[in-house]
Amino acid sequence: MQVFHTISDVREFCAKARSAPTVGTASTAGSTPTVGLVPTMGALHDGHASLVRAARADNDIVVASVFVNPLQFTDLGDCDDYRNYPRNLEQDAEFLRTLGVDAVFAPSVDEMYPGFSASPDQHPQIWVRTGRMGEILEGASRPGHFDGVATVVAKLFQIIQPDRAYFGRKDAQQLAIIQAMVRDLDIPVTIHGLSIVRGVDGVAESSRNLRLSAPQRRAAQALSQTLFGLRDGEFTSVEAARDHLASCAGVELDYFRVVDPANLRDVAADTRPALALTAAWVGPVRLIDNLALETYE
């Protein structure tokens, strides 16, 4: 496995990899090799491993990116959430190596956004705008977040030019927005959304979980318990589920909604398909979770 820090180097790697005919791995022998991309911000866990394994099964070449993107944080990264985000490239690279990743792209901020650190005048001028889909739910609590996500993902697609890209369904709004971006901008990549990976306690795996204390981790179980309770009929309405979660000790609820998974518009709890989403603060950490109401994960 190779680790690249510059756009030119990872582009050269991908170009050379594609120029070699396959020998009967994920693609038909003699065809052009396929490339799978797993975009991450590092602090990798079992949820990321599931994405990598899927990419490894589907493609001849697997590239994972490790980049904490300032554009998707408050004040373009001038905030504690960005500064405190866990970073350990050596550990992440070893994790990816054991999963069979071929290349890791781990650029600096200035590599992705030239001059970013020098002056606000050097911040990106051209962004991908996500409209209404990016302004609701997480977007209402974090204005500009999804514009930052879509912008960096579009750049990664342009740099790596993957055939397929893999995202977790835990970030359901992000997945819906990336799917819409690919469709609306005619980007030739197939998006794969993989099921949420949960701990034995039901908590959705997240890099942010590293910042939870043991009591906070126990409090965080309320998010998944409420979602599954709504799906399984323990609550008579969305409002009842929302009120229950808001009353749980150690949880400061932001939202609890049921939406159409394709466009994120609110729907009744008995509508199908439907997706229940929630976000809450547990101690210093803002957590999100969701559950498809009509299927079992």
Automatic annotation (TrEMBL):
Enzyme's top EC category: ligase
Binding site for ATP: 41-48, 168-171, 197, 205-208
InterPro entries from the UniProt entry: Pantoate_ligase, Pantoate_ligase_C, Rossmann-like_a/b/a_fold
EC number: 6.3.2.1
Reaction catalysed by this enzyme: (R)-pantoate + beta-alanine + ATP = (R)-pantothenate + AMP + diphosphate + H(+)
Active site: H48 (proton donor)
UniProt binding sites for (R)-pantoate: Q72, Q174
Signal peptide: none
Pathway(s) annotated for this protein in UniProt: Cofactor biosynthesis; (R)-pantothenate biosynthesis; (R)-pantothenate from (R)-pantoate and beta-alanine: step 1/1
Keywords tagged on the record: ATP-binding, Cytoplasm, Ligase, Nucleotide-binding, Pantothenate biosynthesis
Chain positions recorded as beta-alanine binding sites: Q72
Subcellular location, record wording: Cytoplasm
Listed GO MF terms: ligase activity
Family that this chain belongs to: Belongs to the pantothenate synthetase family.
PANTHER family named in the record: CYTIDYLATE KINASE/PANTOATE-BETA-ALANINE LIGASE, PANTOATE--BETA-ALANINE LIGASE
More details: The reaction proceeds by a bi uni uni bi ping pong mechanism.
Role according to the record: Catalyzes the condensation of pantoate with beta-alanine in an ATP-dependent reaction via a pantoyl-adenylate intermediate.
Subunit structure: Homodimer.
Protein name: Pantothenate synthetase
Provenance organism: Corynebacterium pseudodiphtheriticum
Lineage: Bacteria, Bacillati, Actinomycetota, Actinomycetes, Mycobacteriales
